[in-house]
Recover the amino acids of this structure.
């Protein structure tokens, strides 16, 4: 290990996001992986490493400089608090640190926030918040649907180009790994195979709160979010199909140039040329977001934004933040 | 064969819709299948029958009382014309007879209409046009996307409940059989597997013209159709995810009762109870349409409408029309 | 309900085999479905019926003339015993009644047989044992792998055409529904998608005992069974790829005629013509077995036998036995 | 580009093996990719590079030091001959150079060998022929089924441990990319989805000749190969399920140690520990072969060998040979 290596631990390393984290981190030249925890798989080998999973309680926070938390919400914040207290930098992939207000958290997660004193925490959507993330000691890694949706909307929101009060319609689709590794009836192969189904419709999905919070920071006059996620019969990949109404003074045929300009210098966001449509194939197993733009009428724009839910939507974005926090090249281990 | 049997022929019987037609018709007690044509598979056995495919040119129209045409557009209308001239009833599954105006046809299909004298033809969306279809001698069987979308919108359109001029947003998804049986790069297994992709976005899909024509008949003040089809990695099944803005005087929580009432007596349309979401599983390999309704805000309603693209979206609906034309129970061979 | 209707109950009606049973029985003109039990789904509607699932303890055996048991092994035999005691005919889809000897049962299932006094029970492989099944009061419905494998071997075994002592090699593949509806790590969509994996190799699968028992009844000089099941990334369908060595006096090119002759009158077994290979597509969602034969060398024959694991491999075969037991046409509700 | 970079061209770079080649070579530090040919996609960008596909006729052999040929058989050998004449090293992924004898080639490929003067060429199964491949100027990269099957058999063949004359039974399964990128009826998504099918059974597959040639070099007393390939509903991955009879003096429980010892120093072959079964998941998208061993009886051994058909079965193995030919670390760009 070189002088500049960061001793790193991963909590929740046997879930799907955790497994991708391990895969990325083992290829990261500045990371020394010290431990990986798993309640379910403790004692078993950690794929691609010489480690074995340890129970979370056995993880020694004093042995690391950074931790990734791929834990369920509510379990994550207390670990974040302990790590922070010990001077360990924290990348939290759970929902615990994403909402700025404990009250809003309780609304969406039906439970008091476990550590309200931690809030607010910088929101790790790098392309939007880069300045606030460089050198941060704790970051809330965004959810998969919020990442994909917000990157698809960002240039319009930043420049205030949406019609005031008009709804933002997001018809979203996710691969099954987004539902977690624990077996459940709706993730049984037989239930998913040959099927396609909406779930959590009508503003009931927990990511609605997170997306609306971030939209409001960029443009408070945006209308309501109409968000319907669907379960796709694929293992990974996520698409947000976004339908927006533009305000006066900006027409849909100007969007291509705006997006190309906005993301020109971004290594992990790719605006496709006119006429090409973003598909899961563009992003599965890589760490980028791809966006295509379709003017429908002068006033109506259709945006397709895609990510790998486990990469740019979870583990990849977490490592992108890690690189920023420690001053490494932002794309280290990600391209 | 009994007295009341209808001697029937099928053109284009080796495509995916044609194969489903054969399967349904062989179980229909009032149908005697006389011939099945196929250019590609001539000479080979017709599955589930004692027939062999014959080339279209060898089909004897004088031997039948009804023909189903599962042919490509442009090839279909001339056969329809010949059949009609001989007093044979016609169920055309192609696009040739769906648009009332030859000029509109030419706009969408980039070719002059092959038989403009046939237009207009009754549009075989039974739940909407039943009165005009009973006893008809020629029917244009609706396209798959139009069927699914129009059934999802019908109660609102009929009663004029949409906000005037507001766009109707349809994010649609279809299984691969919708792309036809002829092998093409985008239907190769490797290209579809694990992928999900939009195609023909931005009002470029040919079904836009058909859907808008029928919408306008029901409510001429409806806004533009914003329609994006996607290719799903499944063999069959089609979903229209419809997002609409309601006019004043009607709120989204009234929609459930309206739809239940509208479709109460319909044997092939099923309105799901509140809280259940329509999925492909509800309709694959049957001849029904399933619809679920989600009030999002008072003014915004999300409608999920699903069909099997080869059944209610093609072969099943064709037989439903056939039953009507000949005075049989409308659901014969369909339940 | 007509005079000749059989009042019937189904135990374990919410598992995958149970659901197919319900679907078949609701289309059976001589069946009145009286109850359907489910521990997990009690209170919920039984698909396609007016019934609701009841807990097994609430099932009234005195109200029925026949019961289908789609229960886990060990739970099934006691219900069979109670039903039989009350004069109710029993079709047991579990493994409890398939092995003639309690000792052999204990060897394979690691538990004493729950009701050894019931053994032996007629083995419901209709094409082999039809005479013993007509009018029987209790039948052990064969397992999915045994059904597919034994039908693929039967003509050779019956006529003693295999080389004495030569191993019978069966490389088998099953869709995921064969693993049951209860969610488990290895049936999670993400684990199965894009994968293919052997399991229970090396004569460790419990169906080895059942297959060898039935082989021995037909030809006691057959060599050991080498059996490897694999999990296929499909929902249903099962293939046994069988490799055998023929004895002297019979060559592989004679097999086609032998099989065609053996199964000529069988409505639910289809021997494919030379050159065609049996595939899952031949049998999925129907109640038949399809077999293709490939002579490899004069002495070596490759047999491909396919079934739908939930149909001919479970529910379909159970109803075929039911029809025999009650004197109905054997294929009622099955074609 | 550094001093030691090899100027390299790829013929047939738009097929599935060609695309994987491009992906691997663009990550290879000693490769300068000079051109990539494609008849179908000429003019389009080569993924992950700054190049555009050129027609094969425009490829300048004088500009390169090495060429990979991912061309159809018969088209490949003439290019190999021209390249060799110009001193360019050749890695041929087609079947043209794999069979040592033109007569045997004609038997299996139904056409005279296009360049018999080139034969024989070193057979690029590195783990078996490494000595002959280091520094070679032309290599026949083995087929996918032969690679997987021969690596699964090698330790037994090398040590003469199979029973003389006993058949070697290989039940093989391949993902659809093995059938090539050109759309054909049997690779249509709808035909493959939910299906599983044998093809080219009974020693009719062209790889039988290649496998038997290589088996005979290692142990001429081996019995006939009984080989049945199947089409799996996955995009990539290949399994050979191998059933062998051992000779006297060696029992199946000794196989684990033999294989572990044989492959201990091999970076791209992994013998799984006892009790673990090789699955597609072990190898998809990597360049290794994984093998598991199951003793069935003392005399009968079941071997499961898996590769990614496009990696260790094509592009990965080609680059492994390239590394050997040019004296680079054998695993460069492959781990």
């Amino acid at each position: 290990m070189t002088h500049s290596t960061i001793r790193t631990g991963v909590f929740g390393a046997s879930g799907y996001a955790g497994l991708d984290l391990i895969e990325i981190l083992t290829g990261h030249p500045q990371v020394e992986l010290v431990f990986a925890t798993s309640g379910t798989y403790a004692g078993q080998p950690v794929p691609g490493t010489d480690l074995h999973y340890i129970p979370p309680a056995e993880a020694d926070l004093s042995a690391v400089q950074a931790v990734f938390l791929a834990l369920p919400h509510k379990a994550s914040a207390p670990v974040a608090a302990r790590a922070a207290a010990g001077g360990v930098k924290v990348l939290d992939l759970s929902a615990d640190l994403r909402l700025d207000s404990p009250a809003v958290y309780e609304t969406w997660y039906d439970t008091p926030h476990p550590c309200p004193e931690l809030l607010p925490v910088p929101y790790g959507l790098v392309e939007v918040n880069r300045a606030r993330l460089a050198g941060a000691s704790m970051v809330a890694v965004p959810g998969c649907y919020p990442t994909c949706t917000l990157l698809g909307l960002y240039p319009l929101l930043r420049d205030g180009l949406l019609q005031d009060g008009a709804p933002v319609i997001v018809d979203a689709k996710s691969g099954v790994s987004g539902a977690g590794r624990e077996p459940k009836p709706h993730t049984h192969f037989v239930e998913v195979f040959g099927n396609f189904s909406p779930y959590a419709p009508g503003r009931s999905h927990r990511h609605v709160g997170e997306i609306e919070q971030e939209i409001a920071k960029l443009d408070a006059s945006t209308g309501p979010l109409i968000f319907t996620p669907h379960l796709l019969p694929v293992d990974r990949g996520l698409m947000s199909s976004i339908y927006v109404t533009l305000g006066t003074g900006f027409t849909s045929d100007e969007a291509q140039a705006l997006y190309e300009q906005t993301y020109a210098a971004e290594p992990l966001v790719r605006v496709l040329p006119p006429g090409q449509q973003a598909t899961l194939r563009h992003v599965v197993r890589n760490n980028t977001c791809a966006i295509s733009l379709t003017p429908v009428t002068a006033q109506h724009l259709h945006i397709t934004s895609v990510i790998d839910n486990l990469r740019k939507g979870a583990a990849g974005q977490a490592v992108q933040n890690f690189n920023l926090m420690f001053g490494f090249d932002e794309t280290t281990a990600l391209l």
Remarks:
- The mean pLDDT of chain A is 97.
- Residues 311-326 of chain A form the longest helix (16 residues).
- The two ends of chain A are 22 Å apart (CA to CA).
